[in-house]
Specification:
Elements: H1 3-21, E1 30-33, E2 36-39, H2 50-53, E3 55-62, H3 72-90, E4 96-102, E5 105-113, H4 118-126, E6 131-136, H5 138-142, H6 152-155, E7 156-162, E8 166-176, E9 179-188, H7 190-202, E10 208-212, E11 215-216, E12 232-235, H8 241-253, E13 260-268, H9 270-299, H10 301-323, H11 335-364, H12 369-401, H13 404-437
Antiparallel strand pairs: 1-2, 3-5, 3-13, 4-5, 6-7, 6-10, 8-9, 9-12, 10-11
Amino acid sequence: MRPRKILWVIIILTILAVWVDIPSFKSAPVLNFFGSRVNIFGAFPLKLGLDLQGGTEVVLETQMDKIEPQNRDSALESAKNVIERRVNLFGVSEAVVQTSKLREQRRIIVELPGIKDASVAASLVGKTAQLDFRELSPEAEQSEATLSGVPLAALTKSTGLTGADLKKAEVTFGSGGGKSGPQVAIEFTSEGSKKFAEITKRNVGKPLCIFLDDIPVQDGCPTVEQEIIGGSAVITGQFTTQQTKELAVQLNAGALPVPIKIIEQHSIGPTLGQESVNKSLVAGIIGLGIVALYMAAYYGLLGLIADAALIIYTLLVLAIFKTGLFLLPPVTLTLAGIAGFILSIGMAVDANILIFERMKEEIRWGKSKQMALELGFKRAWVSIWASNVSSLMTAAILIGMGTSLIRGFAITLTIGVLVSMFTSYIVTRTFLRLIIKY
């Protein structure tokens, strides 16, 4: 492709990157897009991690007393997966759930960005959510005991239909059991549907109670009017919309395989995160400025070209952080991720230095500037490629085996390395070709 056409592609990419990177502001124009109001600027907010936007961290300790020693590690991993599903179903963006083992202690650490209320976080991750359908016990039927004034647990027995037979649960609105408002519609698996049909058939005219963690979800028990075939039911009660959402999340995610207790929970305020962001921005601007001044002072016109490519590099990387380029989810930026980004700025300039030094050598050997440009890029690219590939391999290991903070660093470093290869080989080369030609 000709340099002029490549230049237009670079200009379009840069304009798009600038549009994505511009933050939102109060007086920004708004467009109506398919009935929704969309801000022209700030449509892609930068996602920040717990250490930058604030939130809640909860430390849970598993109770492994009744678990065989050889099964404790798998039980810990299962509990972690259940909590992770709950958090994801609840819609907490970019939450982190990880395990920790110290001697016989097995803990689960949950980071919930944006959740400021510690009690909400505790109820989300700490409940066991054991769903159980119960019918009247033979003793209660024989004594003709009434349900009023007597604990339901003493009058009922399990039917064998539990949350394990559940296929899905979702929040609905309407009337159910004579009550209107938010409720949880549940659908059983094929095996659960058979159980439910048998249970309702033998309990026609009798109460069927629904328990969650050994607590009835309603003050009274609904009466079965007829055999229910189809495997669907509705859980109603004095629920708020938020409570029904949490209940649906817990039921969909499943019950925890081991009991857990919260041993530590604390909130991280957004003020501390904003202070960290401000300091990181200052550090990034200082680093970028020093690198740009050095390149301009040492290489002159070539350095200015490298600085222009570096600015484009920064804009493209930030745009990828915000959008993911529609291939990956947007990057959640943490302090470690910012460190990886700032490090990648220096690595982006490193490729230009290799190219410029090779060009200077070719010119000293008597080559023309245009020939020196092509040979300089060709011979320097082998070293650039080898260096960047080794960095990408290291980053891949960190992403696969590191903790959440290390992964954040490695992801931003990987994006930075890939974009730097594009800007050094395409952007810088195109600018130099046009300048040397004219």
